[in-house]
Amino acid sequence: MTNVTEAAASRESETRARIVETAERLFREIGFQKTTVADIARALRMSPANVYRFFGSKAEIHVAVARQLMSEVETAARRIAHGAGPAAQRLRALILSIESMNADRYIADRKLHDMVEAALDQHWPAIDEHIDRVDALFEAVIADGMESGEFARGDAQRAAKLVHAACIRFCHPRLMVESADRPEPTSAQMVEFCLAALRGGVSR
Q: What is the mean pLDDT of residues 19-40?
């Protein structure tokens, strides 16, 4: 790749990032459904046609914003999963961190929550991809625990899916809203329950 081509690719990437960042800000300010491509273009001081050079439709912008938000959660989760410390400590921090970040993004900010509802109702592939990546992080931590002797040996992949399912109300934005008036079990209590199961052999 020539320097000119690299520079052009870099500018294109930067412009796409600016569009996504601006769209996210407008989603928070005026709402996911109400924000138009014209609004995004106006905020960026460019024409709607120029926005469409980078995204083929408004729906593509929606998905890009969702991917960006989920990527931030995944980055923080990956740092915890592959960090130092006992597996139990990392798994606990992983689940509680995902809960906290999702609450900040989608529960405290109800306008962004509307986008999550649309993503779930319309079965955006990005949601399934995110779940698969989180499952993989759970599996990596649990496999470490099985290898070190912290957890009983077994099928780490199945154990990860069971733990994720057990804690889903603390990770799933829609369920977090629906369960808001049910104080127990808390996420901390559920994590300890899962850790006890892992120590006893959850995947047998």
A: 93
